[in-house]
Amino acid sequence: DQQVKQNSPSLSVQEGRISILNCDYTNSMFDYFLWYKKYPAEGPTFLISISSIKDKNEDGRFTVFLNKSAKHLSLHIVPSQPGDSAVYFCAARDTGTASKLTFGTGTRLQVTL
Amino acid sequence: NAGVTQTPKFRILKIGQSMTLQCAQDMNHNYMYWYRQDPGMGLKLIYYSVGAGITDKGEVPNGYNVSRSTTEDFPLRLELAAPSQTSVYFCASSYVAGVAKNIQYFGAGTRLSVL
């Protein structure tokens, strides 16, 4: 039973345009959501997060939106740059579970010139 | 800044062999985690630790053991390696205190093949 789903395995976007990566979840007890970025042969690196009490968080070119009623979050990257090409993982934390994270399967973003 | 260091980076094991994957962090984080990532899949939690001397099972603990004798180190032991344990293993750590957001920081991973 996959509690965090990233239904798009890959996404290709032109440089300068907006990239939108989506994530859906099923567990109502998730209280904190994170996006990680992963380059080949490296570990995931933290990108941006959002608490369940908010609906938007911005950090430079990256914005995460949370729609609790739809159990949906999205990561917007504007403008997209070639260096953004990586695999992006959505992760969610269940409150009271020793900060364990449940990860989605990832979306591979390719930013083309 | 070293952060989370994993050794080795690559390893090939024969079926039935044993090995220990090493993980060390220098950020004085209290929580540490071991994940595995199979192709096309997300990260699955194997074991985690909330402090020295305290460990617990994650989602996929079978075939693995851990110990945490110090804050810094969290080795993962594979006993009797099987082909199903072929994967990339990631160690992570975080500082958890109250309701503060607790971001996990990851090592570069160990790529393990069992043949």
Strand-helix topology:
The complex is a heterodimer of chains A (113) and B (115).
Chain A: E1 4-5, E2 10-14, E3 19-25, E4 30-38, E5 45-51, E6 56-59, E7 62-67, E8 72-77, E9 86-94, E10 101-103, E11 107-112
Parallel strand pairs in A: 2-11
Antiparallel strand pairs in A: 1-3, 3-8, 4-5, 4-9, 6-7, 7-8, 9-10, 9-11
Chain B: E1 4-7, E2 10-13, E3 19-25, E4 31-37, E5 43-51, E6 54-57, E7 64-66, E8 76-78, E9 87-94, E10 105-106, E11 110-114
Parallel strand pairs in B: 2-11
Antiparallel strand pairs in B: 1-3, 3-8, 4-5, 4-9, 5-6, 7-8, 9-10, 9-11
Protein described:
The complex is a heterodimer of chains A (113) and B (115). Chain A has 113 residues and is mainly beta. Chain A has no helices and 11 strands. Chain A has strands at 4-5, 10-14, 19-25, 30-38, 45-51, 56-59, 62-67, 72-77, 86-94, 101-103, 107-112. In chain A, strands 2, 4, 5, 9, 10 and 11 form a 6-stranded mixed beta sheet that branches. In chain A, strands 1-3-8-7-6 form a 5-stranded antiparallel beta sheet, with no helix packed on it. Chain B is mainly beta and 115 residues long. Chain B has strands spanning 4-7, 10-13, 19-25, 31-37, 43-51, 54-57, 64-66, 76-78, 87-94, 105-106, 110-114. The model of chain B has no long low-confidence stretch (mean pLDDT 93). The chains are: A mainly beta (113), B mainly beta (115). Chain A binds chain B through residues 4, 9, 32, 34, 36, 41-46, 49, 51, 89, 93, 98-106, and chain B through 4, 6, 31, 33, 35, 40-45, 48, 50, 56, 58, 90, 92, 94, 96, 101-109.
Whole-angstrom Rg of chain B: 14 Å
Poorly predicted spans of chain B: none
Oligomer: heterodimer
Shape of chain A: globular
